[in-house]
Amino acid sequence: MSNRKDEHIKHALAYNPPYNSFDEVELMHSSLPKYDLSEIDLRTNFAGQDWDFPFYINAMTGGSDKGKAINQILAQVAQACGLLFVAGSYSAALKDKSDDSYKVREWAPQVLLGSNIGLDKPVSLGLRTVEETHPLLLQVHINLMQELLMPEGEREFRSWRQNLADYAAEIPVPLILKEVGFGMDRKTIEYALELGIKTFDISGRGGTSFAYIENQRGRDRTYLNEWGQSTAQALLNAQTFSGCAEILASGGIRHPLDIIKALVLGAKAAGLSSTILKLVEGYPLDEVITIVNGWKDDLRIIMCALNSRTIADLKNVDYILYGRLREANEQFSD
C-alpha cells in the first residue's frame, strides 16, 4: 500500500495550476526613485517575532522516508538562507512515536522552525506537538474540502470550533491559523479574531490544489479541482482586517514578483511550498540555496522600483486589477 504523504508529493509535483490570480495584478512602476538600493529593508514582523525576510518555507510533508528526506533538505535551505521553515503536519508522528521525519535539527541545528497540526486534532495533541518539536510557532491548518474529498478523511466537524478556542487559550507559542489552498473567508477570520488569534495564512487557490490531489487518489470529482477563492482574492477580502490581523499569503507564490504583489495586497509575508519543493527535487542543495538567496536581491530591486524602502511602504503602492480578479473585487466592493 502506498504512503498517502508520498502520494501527495507525487501529485503536487505533477500539478500545473490553470490560473494564478497574481497574473491579474499589475504594480505601478515609479520612474523617479527616492532610495538607494542599499537602503531597501526586507525585515517584517508576525507571530510575535521579527524576521529578516518577508517569505518563508511553508508546511509540506513528513510521515514517510521521502518526506523525511525532503524535510532535511528544506531545513538546511531555510537555515542557510535565514528563513522560517514550517514542517508538515505532525499528525503522523503523533500516531507513530518512531516517526522521526520531522526531527530536522540534527541536520539544521539553528533552523527557525515552526510546527503544523490539523484543527481536527484536540488541543492535547497540539500541546504534545509543541513539547516534542519546540517550535517558534504553531501553524494550525484547516482543510475542510480536502478532508471531504479524501477517501479516509474526517466526516465530523462540529468539534473544530471548540478545538480552535482551546488552541487559542492553551497553546504557549504564537499561533497561525492556516488554510490549505482554498482561500480563507472573512467570517472565519472574524471568528478567530474574537478568540484572540491574530495571525492568518489565507492560503488561496493558485498553487498546490488538495482538491486535485485527493481527486487523483479517490473518486473523480474534477469539477471541484478549482474550488475556493484565489490567493489574490483572499488577500483583497482580508484587507478589511488590516488594522487588527496579521495576514500571510500562500498558494501560488512562484517568484519574488508574486511575493511583492502579495505584500502590496496586504500580506506581512508570503509562504512558498510547491515552488520550493520543485527546486529541491530538481537541483542540488547548494544550487537551491543560491537561487533562494538570489530572491532577496530581486525583492530589493522590485521594491526600489516601487519607491518602497520597507515592507510597510508596499501597502501604499498603487496597482491595477484585471480580468476575473477585477470582476470579483468589484462585486465584493459593492
TrEMBL record:
Q: Where does FMN bind?
A: A59, M60, T61, S89, N116, K178, S203, T208, G252, I253, R254, S273, S274
Q: Tell me, in one coarse class, where this protein mainly resides.
A: cytoplasm
Q: Which UniProt keywords apply?
A: Cytoplasm, Flavoprotein, FMN, Isomerase, Isoprene biosynthesis, Magnesium, Metal-binding, NADP
Where would you find this protein in the cell?
Cytoplasm
Described function:
Involved in the biosynthesis of isoprenoids. Catalyzes the 1,3-allylic rearrangement of the homoallylic substrate isopentenyl (IPP) to its allylic isomer, dimethylallyl diphosphate (DMAPP).
EC top class named in words: isomerase
What does the record give as the reaction this protein catalyses? isopentenyl diphosphate = dimethylallyl diphosphate
* Pfam families attached to this UniProt entry: FMN_dh (PF01070)
EC number(s) given by UniProt? 5.3.3.2
Q: Which cofactor does it need?
A: NADPH; FMN; Mg(2+)
Q: Tell me the protein family, please.
A: Belongs to the IPP isomerase type 2 family.
Q: How does it assemble?
A: Homooctamer. Dimer of tetramers.
**Can you say what this protein is called?**
Isopentenyl-diphosphate delta-isomerase
Q: Where is the FMN-dependent dehydrogenase domain?
A: 159-316
Cite the Gene3D superfamilies for this sequence. Answer: Aldolase class I
Whose protein is this, by species? Streptococcus dentapri
HAMAP family associated with the record: Idi_2
Tell me the residue numbers annotated for binding substrate. Answer: R4, K5, Q146
Q: GO molecular-function annotation terms?
A: isopentenyl-diphosphate delta-isomerase activity
**Residue spans crossing the bilayer:** none
Write out the residues that bind Mg(2+).
E147
Q: Which InterPro entries match?
A: Aldolase_TIM, FMN-dep_DH, IPdP_isomerase
What gene is it encoded by? Answer: fni
